[in-house]
Write a structure and sequence with these properties.
The complex is a heterodimer of chains A (119) and B (115).
Chain A (H helix, E strand, L loop, with lengths): L2 E3 L4 E5 L4 E3 L2 E3 L5 E8 L6 E7 L7 E2 L2 E6 L4 E6 L8 E9 L10 E3 L3 E6 L1
Parallel strand pairs in A: 2-12
Antiparallel strand pairs in A: 1-4, 3-9, 5-6, 5-10, 7-8, 8-9, 10-11, 10-12
Chain B lengths: L3 E4 L2 E4 L4 E8 L5 E7 L6 E7 L2 E5 L6 E7 L2 E7 L7 E8 L10 E2 L3 E5 L1
Parallel strand pairs in B: 2-11
Antiparallel strand pairs in B: 1-3, 3-8, 4-5, 4-9, 5-6, 7-8, 9-10, 9-11
The chains are: A mainly beta (119), B mainly beta (115).
Chain lengths: 119, 115
Amino acid sequence: AQTVTQSQPEMSVQEAETVTLSCTYDTSENNYYLFWYKQPPSRQMILVIRQEAYKQQNATENRFSVNFQKAAKSFSLKISDSQLGDTAMYFCAFMEQYAGGTSYGKLTFGQGTILTVHP
Amino acid sequence: ETGVTQTPRHLVMGMTNKKSLKCEQHLGHNAMYWYKQSAKKPLELMFVYSLEERVENNSVPSRFSPECPNSSHLFLHLHTLQPEDSALYLCASSQDHRTSTDTQYFGPGTRLTVL
């Protein structure tokens, strides 16, 4: 079974600085997808960024980028120029590739990291 | 907002009550999901529906009973719950459960407290 581990329960950063959230995962699959989701306080969870395991290039979305190390099974999220609105719980998630039949792409989440951005 | 709504947002119920959680998506998606988010635990997938057919029941106790009357609506019927069932219940939808790159869009959740 796949597992996802986020070893940092809480992180804090000053506004405008850079912060990196860690995530490791365990799988025997070769084709899969990785995601970072953001859940602001009392607000809906939204997708921040995703990475296909077959792509060597790290995904980037504006101020958010990932460092994907497939061999090490590591998938960290870097937030540059942190903003107050980045304060949220961040979840790393794994999804295996759909294998047909009744199989489906199940999202497996880590425990989450609470990020607080200070002014 | 993500186009996925959930009602009620908060629910307090006794162990002998019967209640239902409702989820509605306005995105034209074909797959819907129920997740349980407990304090200090990872989100747990409970059920997956695709085109109104249940494709996964992730070893969930029978006191949770899902219903998907059409591709836009998903219910979670609750009965004889236990205090440890208190959690945030999240609904999500995606275009197609078979497409791994499909983004899952989440609702705001229902905060359930079982007394």
